[in-house]
Amino acid sequence: MKYKKIYLNPKKEESILRFHPWIFSGAISRAEGSPEEGDLVKVYDSRGNFLATGHCQIGSIAVRILSFKDVEIDKAFWEMRFEQAYQIRRQLGLVENPLNNTYRLIHGEGDGMPGLIVDVYAGTAVMQAHSPGMHIIRKELAEALRNVMGEQLQNIYYKSESTLPFKADLGAENEYLSGGKDVSSIALENGMKFPVDWITGQKTGFFVDQRDNRALLERYSKGKDVLNMFCYTGGFSCFAMRGGAKSVHSVDSSSKAIVLTDENIALNFPNDDRHRSFTEDAFKYLEKMGDRYDLIILDPPAFAKHRNVLKNALQGYRKLNVVAFEKIRPGGLLFTFSCSQVVTKDQFRLAVFSAAAQSKRNVRILHQLTQAGDHPINIYHPEGEYIKGLVLAVD
Questions:
Q1: How many CB atoms lie within 10 A of CB 69?
Q2: SS3 156
């Protein structure tokens, strides 16, 4: 394969020598071969020394690096990456586990495949591209994935209509790249059942990144009155129920989310009257709820997807946590999260700290949380730690 070439400005290779997987457009001096959106390119420093190979794209992130070694990016390369990721999930105990059939197989930069997400739901893999380069080779990736997973995999569904950069104008369509058969759409997570709709559901169909945190919540739920804010499919609510909660209330502004939550509660806990759900704005519900809960979960959608709204996002986290601190019963527990990638761990903690100080409550950190292990964080790419969470004891 003939690769096009990109040369960096002097002294712009430092981050690449630290193995950061992104090259920004401002670092580039010139290109050879007129690289286009999604092309494979080799990157060199200003003196002509090889640095990396990656996918080229339009935007501030100009190259997503696939390898820092001068290797061929071919089917064997992709199979190697899939196999490495698969073996990590096996070590995590997520493969061939009778209590779990759902996990993230590929987590972008965390698995050396920037721009690609693959979630596995029983016999179906849902593939999602976030870069033109991954979109262009989707069929090659699907073949490599089938070669690694074999008969375990009955379907590969490609779902990238809404995730690719709009400027690329790639005309992506959601489709089955393999299979299309009727298979179980029930996700098993630590023995809990969740129906998955990978065709019309959010993201790839289910949020598996909170698996470990939901299991932790279960341990703390016995005998408590629990509030699950921004409940979406009710994952935290289900584990609170199984943990022996006295009552569980699920709140979301989306009526569709409440329907999903109610369905999941009914599937796992039929005819159990401990659960109630409410379609309502989070802040309005918190303001009027009184001191009826001794365990509250705050897991809002990303308040900031871009840095230009970071300040407003941090104010939103502070306001949300202030009300929770003010209303939670003495001796209560608060599980509070941010899933905004642009919000750092320190920024989130400062927002929560400010909220605690404003509420004048005594607060202690019991746990510091992040995403589940099948969402690995490349140590050279701290931006990959997008979930930040705290478990707080509130006196």
A1: 8
A2: strand
Burial of 174: CB neighbours in 10 Å, binned 0-12, 13-18, 19+: middle
Q: Report yes or no: 7 and 44 within 8 Å, Cβ to Cβ.
A: yes
Shared-domain flag, residues 163 and 229: no
The encoded tokens of residue 19 equal 């193995």
Q: What is the mean pLDDT of the chain?
A: 94
Residue 129's nearest CA partner among 163, 103, 165 is: 163
Domain count, the chain: 3
Alpha helices in 105-234, H assignment, sequence order:
132-136, 138-149, 211-220
Q: What is the pLDDT of residues 54-92, one digit of tens each?
A: 999 999 999 999 999 999 999 999 999 999 999 999 999
Q: What three-state secondary structure class fits 112?
A: coil
Which residues make Cβ contacts (< 8 Å) with residue 182, sequence separation at least 6? none
Q: How far lies 307's CA from each of 147, 167, 312, 314, 338, in Å?
A: 40, 19, 10, 11, 15
Q: Is the pTM of this model over 0.90?
A: yes
CB 178 within 8 A of CB 155: yes
pLDDT in tens, 154-180: 999 999 988 888 666 788 889 999 998
- The backbone torsions φ and ψ at residue 189, rounded to the nearest 5 degrees and listed phi first, read -130, 110
CATH number, domain with residue 21: 2.30.130.10
Q: In terms of residue numbers, what domain contains 122? A: 75-195
Co-location of 331 and 358 in the same domain: yes
Amino acid at position 224, single letter? K
The stretches in the chain having pLDDT less than 70 are 166-168, 182-184, 202-205, 304-306
Q: Are residues 234 and 371 in the same domain?
A: yes
334 contacts 392 by C-beta, under 8 angstroms:
yes
Among all chains, which residue has been given the structure tokens 């390119």? 41
